[in-house]
Design a protein that fits this description.
The protein is mainly α. The chain is built from four helices and no strands. Keywords: Endonuclease, Hydrolase, Nuclease.
């Protein structure tokens, strides 16, 4: 296991779910801890999701605005 946090997660899952060695190996193979972390990182509300999307689009628009566009006679 990579970290103490990851190891603790799998130990807790094994105890709580009374997992067999095979079931625990399958959970580790499916990257249960990593999947849980990704799910927890999802926006908690629609407003938060909208804010994140707006931030991404604003940053992209700013990057595009800084680029110099060729003039008509340069083409």
């Amino acid at each position: 296991m990579r970290t103490h946090k990851v190891r603790s997660f799998y130990i807790e899952q094994a105890i709580a779910g009374r997992l067999s060695a095979k079931a625990l190996r399958q959970l580790i193979g499916r990257q249960g801890f990593e999947r849980k972390e990704v799910a927890n990182a999802q926006p908690s509300s629609r407003a938060e999701l909208q804010t994140r999307i707006q931030t991404i689009y604003r940053a992209a628009a700013e990057r595009m605005a800084r680029r110099e566009l060729p003039s008509a006679h340069d083409v």
